[in-house]
Amino acid sequence: MTIRHSLLAKRPQSDQTLLPMLIRQRDCELHELNRRRLVQNELSPPKFRPMLSLISMSSDIVFKSCSQTPLVMHVRVVSGTGGGPDKTILNSPRFLDPLGYRCVCVYLRDPGDDGFSVIAERAAEKKASLEAVDDFGIKDVGIVSRLRELVDRYQPTIWHGHDYKSNLLGLMLRRRHPMQLVTTVHGWVQKTWKTPLYYFVDRQCLPRYDRVICVSQDLYDDCLRSGVAATNLSLIDNAIALDDYAASNDPAEAKQQLGFSTNTTLVVGVGRLSNEKGFDLLIRSIANLIDSGADVSLAIAGDGAEHDSLQQLIRSTGHQDRIRLLGFVADPRTVYRAADLYALSSRREGLPNVVLEAMAMGVPVLATKVAGMPTLISDDVNGRLVEPDDMDELQQALAALIADPSARQRFGEAGRQTVEERFSFEGRMKKMVDVYRSLDS
């Protein structure tokens, strides 16, 4: 699907007048519905209309002319349908606005990546202003001028990066446009041969930022070792909007909808299918339990580079009917509702949103002791913790919880309470605003 946005590297002649026309026709009192009607029905070519309602292409006009309150520009490189950081980014505008900060979400993406339409849909659902910027990869020097145009129009007070590339670009653009630089460190994973280069670049950028926010203690410590001053570091855990998550009233029906028996104990995992997630260990553990006679099944939601190898692993177990890869699931709540147990088998991780989401929905959690997990889960109090990359311990913990429904219920109730008390998104945004305001002083 072609997505229309305001910063095309090569804009068709018929579309070049779109922004000037919008500028002439809009003022800050124009209702959002009228804007969409004008854009979709009067200004845009038919092929662009299906997605235009999903992306706010002219909200910069409102931001620039209607208010002098500070503007935060979130910037992130994304591929496919995104991940955990995008839940935080797209939720931020509706929570920051009452606290006195306007917000625009800027995504750098490959123009041929159809997965971005999912992010656009989520932005529309959250009423987040979204800008899509064409990014043709590491050799695309034109990305600087395209972002410069965006910065000139929005005049952000704060540039908030979320990865090595947005951090580097923020430093480059501040030479022309004075703005405070903030970044959130979500974690680093080994994915390609380029990753060490990206890691090195980020290490050069972080000490030059005005504030660096880490989502777990180990990332905080890592940044300290990399030369970021402690006075410029903040630790703010991930969080979720609790109103979006409620426990399932009918898990049996949810299991049926996923194609599983209502009587089976269903273990679920959600995430990118990559090595650091440890789904291979989870699949082997569940397969061994099935072989031993346990009535257990496994559903994994997500997509990624390891899909084919994991599917082959499942076939080798002979349990394709009870161990399934669900592929990308737009709304993972449909998976949590069916779950008797959530399993995080990661080898490396920050503080994953998926675990917070599962706990918020009352799903008991078994997780590896990676990064921020021990700050979230107290072993045998509101969940279970096992050592990462230890399949024997993982399998034993799974077996114990599958056989003990009362423990699962206890962990589920305590987990929900933990999220309510410590990981609400509103609380996180108040901490974020404290960081933003500290920059003024």
From TrEMBL:
It is an enzyme of class 2 (transferase). Keywords: Glycosyltransferase, Transferase. It comes from the Bacteria. Residues 83-243 form the Glycosyltransferase subfamily 4-like N-terminal domain. The keyword Ligase does not apply. GO terms for molecular function: D-inositol-3-phosphate glycosyltransferase activity. SUPFAM superfamilies: UDP-Glycosyltransferase/glycogen phosphorylase. Residues 253-417 form the Glycosyl transferase family domain. The keyword Transferase applies. Its EC number is 2.4.1.250. This is D-inositol 3-phosphate glycosyltransferase. It comes from Rubripirellula amarantea. The gene is mshA_4.
